[in-house]
Amino acid sequence: MVKGQSSKGRQKIEIKAIQNEEARQVCFSKRRQGLFKKASELSILCGAIVGTIVFSPAGRSFSFGHPSIDEVISRFLSSVVNPNGPAASGGPNHDNGGSVTDTVNTLNMEVLGLEQSLESEKQRKERLQEATEKEMGGRMMQWLNANVFELGLDELLEFEKKLEEIQAIVKEQINEVLVQGRHPPRFLPQPPMDIASTSQSADPNPMASTAPNALAAN
């Protein structure tokens, strides 16, 4: 009986860098597909959220993710930002607010809320200022309509203070109008009625009528 040749069996392949460029590219393609297949099986069998990113020796990127590589990256970054969150503890986080996108949305909502609060505060301030000015105007009218002969010393001093405030406001408004060039033209005062009637009457000799007036003025 002839003895059969003994088989060496499955031998372990030594893990080292492949020097041949073509063989290295073929190995990379096969191993990459196998890696993605294992990642897919892990997500299907265990319901895990899996993400894998591989760069070829030439610098090209290949990725696999379940449910998507973007969501996996977002959850990973959120675990870095918030290490005590659900994503870091391994709990369910399909609908949590720990992802980067949810964090950005939360911050945007906070900014929007602050802007609305600021606008509401601005409107409240305007209403308060309007009510204050209206109340001050009403008090000012009461002072202007008051009978000064019936006021006591304290009331007269306060009335004087209010008048000084009004005077300051009027001066400020006059200066503003003068600066802006919006002040109304100044008209000469109207002559007395007798002079006006004389100037309006027809005079056949205007020089003669002017001479007596000049002498009278002298």
From TrEMBL:
It is found in: Nucleus. The keyword Transcription applies. Its main location: nucleus. Residues 183-218 are annotated as: Disordered. Residues 196-212 have a biased composition (Polar residues). Residues 8-68 form the MADS-box domain. InterPro entries: MEF2-like_N (IPR033896), TF_MADSbox (IPR002100), TF_MADSbox_sf (IPR036879). Residues 104-176 form a coiled coil. PANTHER family: MADS BOX PROTEIN (PTHR11945), OS02G0164450 PROTEIN (PTHR11945:SF629). This is Agamous-like MADS-box protein AGL29. The lineage of its organism: Eukaryota, Viridiplantae, Streptophyta, Embryophyta, Tracheophyta.
